[in-house]
Amino acid sequence: MLQNISKYLTGFILTMVMLNACASTELTESWVDERYQGKPVSDILVIGVTDEKTIRRAFESKFVRRFKALGVDAVSSADAISTNELMKLDKAVILQAAHKYNSDSVLITRLMGVDEKTVYHRPAHYGGFYGYYGHYHGYMHSSAYQTSQTFYRLETVLYDVKTEKPIWSILSRTWDRDSARQIIDEVIDVAIKDMRKKKVIP
Questions:
Q1: 145 contacts: CB under 8 Å, gap ≥ 6
Q2: CATH number of the domain that 170 lies in?
Q3: Is residue 4 part of a domain?
Q4: To 5 degrees, how large is the angle CA 186–CA 187–CA 191?
Q5: Contact 103, 46 (CB under 8 A)
Q6: CA neighbours within 13 Å on the CB side: how many for 31?
Q7: Where residue 121 falls among pLDDT bands split at 50, 70, 90?
Q8: Whole-prediction pTM value?
Q9: Contact 60/48 with Cβ under 8 angstroms?
Q10: Which of 82, 89, 131, 163 could, after both became Cys, cross-link 127 (CB 3.0–4.6 A)?
């Protein structure tokens, strides 16, 4: 029995380590209005700020599904507001949609910026100084010596509809993902986790 439990725990720990190793989105800042902490919102209008129609719909739809899975009603702006996808949404239109769907809060996510960073890989040491020199003389000029990483910085803010003031917000950073959908999934995971931690959703 103890042996089986030990095997299970070992497998669980290894799985968690692998998942954490694959994660490429980190929470860089988090804030919550203490007056709202512990008073979960019940219905959220989700807005993604982007000119890319497909990305906006994918982001909003995924967020809505995650909220509903937690028992929080939610609707995407793409479904709630009938307008040109590339047009800026007026304040009155957003509030009208929030009232129509009984949303008590509005969640907005925007891309703050994209950064490129060159990463230099520190080589291992090979014996004495000349062994080191000889091994890396040519290597330092190769593409393997340095790589470029792309960082996506996003801000996600939850607003109270009645007061129009922020309830909760985070800044997140994602790097080296292969697709926009991977970025969406990871950013939403980080946001949901922090919202639950701060008790703004159940």
A1: 120, 121, 123, 136, 139
A2: 3.40.50
A3: no
A4: 120
A5: no
A6: 11
A7: low
A8: 0.75
A9: yes
A10: 131
User: Nearest Cα to 107, choosing from 55, 71, 159?
Assistant: 159
Indicate the residue type of 95.
L
Number of compact structural domains in the chain = 1
> Which amino acid, one-letter code, is at 157?
V
**Could you tell me the residue range of the domain that residue 192 belongs to?**
26-197
Could you tell me the sign of the dihedral formed by the alpha carbons of 119, 124, 130, 131, in that order?
Answer: negative
The answer to whether residue 185 sits within a structural domain is yes
Q: Is the dihedral of CA 130, 132, 133, 137 positive or negative?
A: positive
What residues pair up with 73 in beta bridges, in sequence order?
43
E strands along 64-129, which residues? 73-76, 105-120
Q: Confirm whether 13 is domain-assigned.
A: no
Residue 127's pLDDT band, with cuts at 50, 70 and 90, is low
Residue 30: CB atoms within 10 Å: 16
- For residue 17 the two structure tokens come to 């380590």
**Does 22 score more than 70 pLDDT?**
no
Instruction: Tell me which residue of 183, 158, 181, 153 sits closest to 169, measured CA to CA.
Output: 158
Q: Write out the two tokens for 65.
A: 């599904």
Distance CA 106, CA 46 (A): 6
- Amino acid 2 reads L
- The C-alpha angle 63, 65, 71, rounded to 5 degrees, equals 105
Pairing of strands 25-32, 166-175: antiparallel
